[in-house]
Every structure is written in C-alpha cells, then in structure tokens.
Automatic annotation (TrEMBL):
Source species, domain of life: Bacteria
Protein's UniProt name: Arabinose efflux permease family protein
PANTHER family assigned to the protein according to its UniProt record, in alphabetical order: INTEGRAL MEMBRANE TRANSPORT PROTEIN, INTEGRAL MEMBRANE TRANSPORT PROTEIN-RELATED
Molecular function in Gene Ontology: transmembrane transporter activity
Lineage: Bacteria, Pseudomonadati, Pseudomonadota, Alphaproteobacteria, Hyphomicrobiales
Keyword line: Membrane, Transmembrane, Transmembrane helix
Length: 390
C-alpha cells in the first residue's frame, strides 16, 4: 500500500520537475532581448550577439553534458542525481534572478544546460507507476503545459517588473523538489545497460538505432526551425488582423492541442506501435507546414498550428519509448535526448539561413524540407523486430 503510494507520488514528482524546468527558461526566453537591454542599458543591435549566445547556451550545454549524466546514472542512485539536477536548476534560476549584469545572467543560463534533467527524467519513467506510453506521453504533456505557462508568467512578470521575484520563486520551488526527489527516489538503484562501450563509441548509440535517432533529430529540427520566424511570417500574411497577442495565442493553441491528443498517442505506444506513431507524427506535421504554403488566411493559420501541435506531440514519446526498451537503453535514451536537443538548435539555424535567401517563406520551406527528410527516413526503415533496436 505504502509502496504503491510512493510510486504514484514519484510519478507526480517527475511531472512537476518536468513542468518547472521547462517553464523557467521559457519565462525569460520570449523577452530575452528586452531583458538584456534592461540589464545593460544598450540597444538591440549592441546586445544582439549576447542574446544569440545566451539563447543557444543551454542547448549546447545539454548536448555536451548528457553523455556524462548518462554515465553517472549507471554508477549513482537516481534520487541523488535528480536532487543534484534540481539544485543546479535552482542555482541557475537564482543567478538569473539576482543578476545585475549581462555576464552573470549568461552564467545562470549556461548552468541551465548542464543540469542533465532531460535524460534523468526519461530514466525516471522506469521507476514510476505508469506504462511506458503513459510515461513518455505524460512527460510531453508536462512539457507542453510548461511551454504554455512559462511565457504567460514571464510576460506578466516582465510587464509588472516582477521577473526577479518570479525567478526567485522558481528557485525556491526547485530546492523543494530537490529534497522530495532525494526522498521519493531513495530506493532507485543505478540504471545500467547490459553492455557498455568505452571511448568515442560509447558516445554513439548502437548501430541499429542511429537511423532512428537521425530521424528524430531531423523531425525536431523541422518542428523547431520555423518557430522563431512564425510571428514575422504571420504578420506578413495577415498584418491587418493578427497582433502579437493573437500570435501568442496561436502558439498556446498548438501546445494545448498537444496536451489533448497525447493520451491517444500514449495508447498507441503501449500497443507497441511506436514507429507508426513516429511516421504519422512526421506526416501530419509535414501536412500542417505545407498547408501554410498553399494558403494563409487567419483561419488556415490557426488550424495549421493546432494540427501541427497535435501531430508533432507524438514524436518524442514514441521515439523515447522505442529507445527505452533495449539492452542499451541508457545509451539510447541519452543519444535520443542529445538528438532532439541538437534538432532544437540546428533547426532555427538552418531556417535562419533560409530567411536570408528567401525571406520568411524560406524558413517555412526549410522546416517543411527537414520534416520531409525525417518522414522519408522513417518510411524507409523496416518494421520493428525484437532485435532492431539493441
């Protein structure tokens, strides 16, 4: 009875950590340039380089540190690592809250990428009282909720000059979550792969997994690539109707659609249809992007964002579910997490280059092309067999 309650508590704790660690950076990111101007007293052009570096720092840190956290997970109890990760996230939020200079703020953002929370949460699914489909789709629901709440809270705090208080509050909450993680996961043993590689090979997933991970990288790049340029593109299409607030609601609608649809993806994943979910996810995302190329009324733009959010939400949980049921699950999950993080970084970079060549429509075309490549790779792969993912 008590063990069952602890299992249920551990699941809600995992979701809480996911929600908070997503909401914190997104409370600042939409207003990053404006916040840096306040800190430095400089203009937009003067802090442009700082803004680019600070925005990219967490992703770069996560890519570099994920293999280390995966190796630590095979040697140290998960509860201890989760607690340490939450403390590092708390330190990151506190430094950003108390920063009086751009340099200190940049340090806080950089620490954010070194916390390893992404791969640790994936491993924590195995220690929670939930099925694999419900676990990974639940993580994605918590992420979507954080993506909605973060900008809303950050926007309110920025308008009311309360960003310092908001980030300090998040830091205190993360310290509390750290304590709970140490208690709830106290009996979670180190997670070991059946076979471990050393050297450079240990940083790569096993060969049968690499094409799947590459597909996830491309699909994530396609989904993330157009996002920074969506507002500019939408205003070009319907500037007389669309406002910044309405565009924000369109983004929120996309994440809300994900929250609604994710339980359905979870059922498919529990039925062993992960690759079908990945294929349908990329195909639906591609359709949503291409529909914007065909027409661009306010109604079509709104429907496209909702469709894209609903279909794209199935990608991450299905990918991680496939990678998680293998003899190399720690290495595979770490590789999958690195790939999706890298996709979030290179997608906007590729679409940004396309903007120079063809304007905001170029970014949309580039995002559709990346998604198409991911879809082709997935459809070229054979149906999963027991030995497909080692």
């Amino acid at each position: 009875m008590i063990a069952g309650r602890l299992k249920q508590t551990s699941w809600w704790l995992v979701l809480s950590v996911q929600f908070v660690t997503v909401a914190v950076p997104l409370a600042v990111l939409p207003f990053l340039s404006l916040h840096l101007q306040r800190l430095s007293g400089a203009g937009t052009t003067d802090i442009a380089l700082w803004a680019a570096v600070i925005a990219a720092a967490p992703a770069i840190g996560a890519i570099l540190s994920t293999p280390l956290w995966a190796r630590l997970a095979s040697s140290y109890p998960l509860g201890r690592l989760m607690g340490l990760s939450c403390l590092l996230n708390a330190l990151s939020a506190l430094l950003q809250a108390q920063s009086g200079t751009v340099e200190v703020f940049a340090l806080g953002r950089s620490i954010q990428g070194l916390t390893g929370v992404g791969v640790l949460l994936l491993l924590a699914v195995e220690h929670s009282r939930t099925t694999r489909g419900s676990g990974y789709s639940g993580l994605q629901q918590a992420l979507a909720a954080g993506c909605i709440a973060g900008p809303l809270l950050g926007g309110w705090a920025f308008d009311n000059d309360a960003l310092q208080g908001l980030l300090t509050g998040f830091a205190v909450l993360l310290v509390a979550l750290s304590v709970f993680c140490g208690y709830v996961f106290h009996d979670a043993r180190p997670v070991k792969d059946e076979e471990q590689s050393s050297g450079f090979a240990g940083l790569l997933p096993p060969t049968p997994t690499r094409m799947l991970v590459l597909s996830g990288l491309l699909a994530t790049a396609g989904a993330s690539g157009f996002m920074p340029f969506f507002a500019g593109w939408a205003l070009e299409q319907e500037s007389a109707v669309l406002t910044a607030s309405l565009i924000g609601l369109l983004h929120a609608g996309s994440w809300a659609a994900a929250i609604v649809v994710l339980p359905l993806w979870g059922r498919w994943i529990d039925a062993g249809r992960e690759r079908a979910v990945m294929r349908l996810s990329t195909a639906g995302s591609l359709f949503a992007l291409v529909s914007l190329l065909a027409g661009s009324t306010v109604v079509l733009i709104s429907l496209s964002r909702i469709v894209h959010g609903a279909f794209n939400s199935g990608l991450a949980p299905s990918l991680f579910s496939v990678l998680g049921r293998s003899r190399h699950r720690v290495a595979n999950l770490a590789a999958g997490r690195m790939a999706t993080t890298l996709g979030q970084a290179i997608g906007p970079a590729i679409c940004g280059l396309a903007v120079f060549a063809a304007g905001n429509n170029g970014a949309l075309f580039a995002a559709a092309l990346l998604t198409l490549l991911a879809s082709i790779l997935l459809y070229l792969q054979p149906e999963a067999r027991s030995h497909d993912v080692e």
